[in-house]
């Protein structure tokens, strides 16, 4: 070792000692201190008084290992099993050297117990215990996770099952949680840094110059806009191992059943950044709930589940082993488990399918089968869109001048700036789109337009309408609503009056699907089911270059987070506060 290296190491050690003496020592995980190994798969906690402890562990699966943030020592944390109509007290102790929190995703709770630091409470400081206490008003499948920094990516999440008070859950012979997520040994702040340096850092599936059947003119257009038609997922299997209940593909996770039984699978997408395509090859699935809410039965062979969504399905498998396949949308890997009538028997694992490719529709330039624009007009020979716009198509999506010299092409409510380089010129409703890569398969795939509420909703027409734009600059990895990046203190929240009925349209001006989650409420998808049977959801996937509409009755007073549930998008600014005021009068 040369002298400069010795001096550098000595200076580093002296510097570290100085930091320790000043009370600024590195945290245990950064020093590489020995930590307990996290258990895989959730234990179960239940009752009216529950203790949860947030800590640090190491986690390993396959050939990967790294640091984890655990709750009660496992990844995922424990299954919180509750009963509709009970009261629950959850004492959450934070043993980390940083603030933490737990948000009860999908549960209707008083806003002060929603668990979002800076919005509904200050967070749980190191060494402190915070008590969440609230009534359980609903039944269904939900989940919980940290809303502090990027802890969710490190394992700070877990499932919730609320048993129905009417005993209807007993109609199934088996009831299993299938919680999908991902693990990476890379620290999430390092992932964020790499995405800021190069948003395609983790994308190893870019097309070659001659690959596929894309016309040369289309290749030139994509290249001219400096955009990649395979820019599907920001973080991929190049660093992720995909998990089912904390188990990697090599861990041989089993769910046992007896032939002839009806098996309920509570599928939860608890990932930070991954959309999954879920199927059991050869076994139909009957969808009975979406986001914990009952829907009329829909029989499918596959479904795409966005980050933070839940779907409950019922299967009646024959004897033998059946593989539960949770394939990442970008086809960079999959989570695997086996539903089997014989312990130790494995099902066939299908190969990864071909990587999907983005289209003109994903750019907000919807085309019909003839190649014409949805409006019946074509792009001109000079690349301009003959749709009432006098700007080049390149400016419409992806190649907007970074100094925003052409703000006239933006919708009036979108703030012009370097954080917006994409505007979908012709966004259309794509609720009938099954998800990228599933629109060309030859079997039944779930679509939002298939969902109908089991019980009729009270029909009340909206009192007003509003439009919110999902905006971003993919090259700079900047994400926002209406061009405005969220800060911890906002002077301009989205305001609703208490019990106001509002029709909200989300316009996705980006080329990525965004799972948009509203805290504290369920909204009704305007999906063609008819007002009385519009399905209730808490998370809505807005497809690239499209728009999606929901009806909201703002009947939960307080301040609520509203954000994209792709963790790094939210962290980069795609979040806002929804304020429901005034509070209803007491009594």
Under CATH, the topology of the domain at 39-158 is which? Immunoglobulin-like
Task: Estimate the helix proportion, in percent.
Answer: under 10%
How many H/I helical runs? 6
The number of distinct β-strands equals 34
Q: CATH architecture of the domain at 39-158, please?
A: Sandwich
- What average pLDDT do the residues reach? 85
Distance between the termini: 77 Å
CA radius of gyration: 24 Å
CATH superfamily of the domain at 39-158: Cupredoxins -  blue copper proteins
Provide an overview of this structure.
The chain is mainly beta and 587 residues long. Among the domains are: 1-27; 39-158, Immunoglobulin-like (Sandwich). It contains 6 helices and 34 strands. It has helices at 3-21, 28-31, 188-197, 216-224, 393-396, 567-572; strands at 39-40, 44-46, 49-61, 64-71, 74-75, 79-83, 87-94, 103-105, 129-135, 140-145, 157-163, 174-183, 241-244, 254-256, 263-269, 276-279, 285-290, 293-300, 303-305, 310-315, 321-328, 334-340, 428-429, 464-473, 478-481, 494-497, 500-508, 514-518, 523-525, 536-537, 539-542, 546-554, 558-564, 575-581. The longest helix is centred in the N-terminal third of the chain and has 19 residues, at 3-21. It is globular and about 60 Å long. The relative contact order is 0.11.
Walk me through the topology:
Elements: H1 3-21, H2 28-31, E1 39-40, E2 44-46, E3 49-61, E4 64-71, E5 74-75, E6 79-83, E7 87-94, E8 103-105, E9 129-135, E10 140-145, E11 157-163, E12 174-183, H3 188-197, H4 216-224, E13 241-244, E14 254-256, E15 263-269, E16 276-279, E17 285-290, E18 293-300, E19 303-305, E20 310-315, E21 321-328, E22 334-340, H5 393-396, E23 428-429, E24 464-473, E25 478-481, E26 494-497, E27 500-508, E28 514-518, E29 523-525, E30 536-537, E31 539-542, E32 546-554, E33 558-564, H6 567-572, E34 575-581
Parallel strand pairs: 1-5, 2-6, 3-7, 6-11, 12-15, 14-22, 23-32, 24-27, 26-34
Antiparallel strand pairs: 3-4, 7-9, 8-10, 10-11, 12-13, 15-20, 16-19, 16-21, 17-18, 17-20, 21-22, 24-25, 27-32, 28-31, 28-33, 29-30, 29-32, 33-34
């Amino acid at each position: 070792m040369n002298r400069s290296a010795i001096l550098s190491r000595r200076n580093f050690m002296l510097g570290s000692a100085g930091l320790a003496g000043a009370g600024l020592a590195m945290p245990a995980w950064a020093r590489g201190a020995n930590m307990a190994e996290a258990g895989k798969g959730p234990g179960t906690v239940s009752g009216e008084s529950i203790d949860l402890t947030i800590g640090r562990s190491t986690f390993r699966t396959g050939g990967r290992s790294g640091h984890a943030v655990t709750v009660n020592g496992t990844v995922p944390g424990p299954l919180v099993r509750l009963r509709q109509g009970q009261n629950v007290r959850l004492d959450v102790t934070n043993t980390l050297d940083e603030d933490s929190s737990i948000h009860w995703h999908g549960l209707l709770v008083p806003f002060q117990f929603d668990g979002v630091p800076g919005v509904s409470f200050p967070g749980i400081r190191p060494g402190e215990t915070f008590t969440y206490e609230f009534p359980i008003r609903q039944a269904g499948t939900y989940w919980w996770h940290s809303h502090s920094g990027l802890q969710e990516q490190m394992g700070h999440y877990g499932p919730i099952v609320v048993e129905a008070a009417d005993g209807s859950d007993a109609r199934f012979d088996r009831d299993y949680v299938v919680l999908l997520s991902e693990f990476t040994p890379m620290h999430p702040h390092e992932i964020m840094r790499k995405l800021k340096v190069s948003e395609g850092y983790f994308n190893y599936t870019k097309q070659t110059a001659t690959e596929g059947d894309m016309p040369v003119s289309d290749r030139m257009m994509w290249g001219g806009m400096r955009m990649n038609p395979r820019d599907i997922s920001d973080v991929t299997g190049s660093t992720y191992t995909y998990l089912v209940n904390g188990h990697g593909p090599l861990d041989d996770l089993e769910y046992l059943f007896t032939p002839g039984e009806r098996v309920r699978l509570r599928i939860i997408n608890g990932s930070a950044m991954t959309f999954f395509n879920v199927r059991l090859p050869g076994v139909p699935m009957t969808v009975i709930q979406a986001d914990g809410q009952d829907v009329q039965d829909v029989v499918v062979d596959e479904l795409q589940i966005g980050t933070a969504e839940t779907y409950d399905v019922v299967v009646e498998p024959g004897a033998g082993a059946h593989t539960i396949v949770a394939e990442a949308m970008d086809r960079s890997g999959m989570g695997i488990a086996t539903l089997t009538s014989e312990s130790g028997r494995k099902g066939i694992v299908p190969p990864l399918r071909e990587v999907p490719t983005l289209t003109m529709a994903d750019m907000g330039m919807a085309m019909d089968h003839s190649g014409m624009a949805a409006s019946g007009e074509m792009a001109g020979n000079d690349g301009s869109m003959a749709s009432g716009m006098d700007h080049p198509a390149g400016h419409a999506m992806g190649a907007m001048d970074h100094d925003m010299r052409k703000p006239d092409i933006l919708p009036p409510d979108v703030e012009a700036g370097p954080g917006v380089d994409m505007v979908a010129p012709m966004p259309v409703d794509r609720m009938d789109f099954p998800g990228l890569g599933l629109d060309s398969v030859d079997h039944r795939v779930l679509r939002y337009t298939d969902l109908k509420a089991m019980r009729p909703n009270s029909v009340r027409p909206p009192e007003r309408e509003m439009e919110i734009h999902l905006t971003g600059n993919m090259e700079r990895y900047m994400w926002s609503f209406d061009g405005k990046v969220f800060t911890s203190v906002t002077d301009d929240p989205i305001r609703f009056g208490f019990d106001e009925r509002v029709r909200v349209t989300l316009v996705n001006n980006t080329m990525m699907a965004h799972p948009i989650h509203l805290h504290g409420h369920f909204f009704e998808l305007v999906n063609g089911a008819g007002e009385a049977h519009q399905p209730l959801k808490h998370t809505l996937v807005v497809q690239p270059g499209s728009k999606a509409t929901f009806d909201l009755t703002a009947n939960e007073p307080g301040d609520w987070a509203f954000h994209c549930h792709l963790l790094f998008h939210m962290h980069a600014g795609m979040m806002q506060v929804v304020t429901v005021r005034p509070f209803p009068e007491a009594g």
